[in-house]
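Exercise: predict the structure of this protein bound to ribose-5-phosphate.
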Amino acid sequence: MIVSGSASQVLAAELAAELDEPLASVEYERFPDGEVLASAPGVAEADADRAVVVASTVSSDAHLELLQLQDAAREWGAEEVVTVVPYMGYSRQDKAFEAGHPVSARAVARAVSSGTDRVLTVNPHEEAVCDFFDVPAESVDAAGRLADPLPANLNDPVFLSPDDGALDIAESARDAYGAGEVDYFEKVRHSGTEVELTPSDTDVAGRDVVVTDDIIATGSTMAGAVEILGEKGASGVFVTCVHPMLASNAVTKLSRAGVEAIYGTDTIERAVSKVSVAPEISGALR
Ligand code: R5P
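Solution:
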C-alpha cells in the first residue's frame, strides 16, 4: 500500500503503478488552530502488510504529515512501515554551523526514524545524512535520469557542475546522455543567496552546456553559472537538477540569466519536473 503526503501525490501514484501496489485514499485537513491532519481513512488491517509512506518534506507541514501517516499505518496494523523521503528537507543543515546551532538534519532524521522500519531518500546533498537515521536508511541515485529530457542533438555538449561536490551528478548525466565533456566550477558561498563562482578554462564558445546540481534552491548558484557561460559564448545553457525546489524568484532569476530550459525530477513536484524517480525508488523497494 502506497500512502502519499500531500506534496508527493504524482510520484506516489507513479510508484504505485510501478510496484503494482494499491494507492491509499488519503485526506489532508487543517484544524481551526492551524494544526494539520493527514489521514488514510478506510484503510483496514487486511489491506496491506507493508505501508510505504511517500512524502517529500518540503515544508514543516509536510514533515508533520509524514509523521502522522507513519502513525496511521501503525494504527491500521501494517507489519512494516517504509518511509520514502524523495526530497529530505533540512538535509543541507547537516552540521552545527555555529556554536549553539542544532544539527537539524539529525533532528528530523531521528523524528522520522521513530515511526518507520526503513528509510529511502534520493540524492541527499551529503550521503552521510543517512547515518543520522536510527533505522536502516539508504539513498537512491537518480542522477542518470537527468539526461532524459535533454534535446537529442546537443552541440558538442559540456556537462558542468557548479562546484566539485556535484561533479558525480554531471558525470552520471553525461554517461546517461552518451556523449560530452565533464567539467566543474569552483564555488564559494557568502550567504544564503550570494555565491561566487570561478569558471574553469574549458572553452564553451558555440557549445551547448548542461549545468547539473543536486538541488536548485534560490537559483543563485545556477543563475550565476548561466550568466558566466553566456559571457563565455556558450550556445545554449540548460540547467537540470534532482530536486527543483525553485524557491521564491528562482525561475525568474534563471530566465533573466538566459537559461534555455530548466529540468528536474518529481522529488519536488514543480512545472519543470519532467523526470520521475519512481523507477529508481521501486527498484530499491522490490
Ligand atoms: C550546494 O552545494 C548545493 O549543491 C546547491 O548548489 C545549492 O544548495 C543550490 O542553492 P541555491 O539554488 O540557493 O544557490
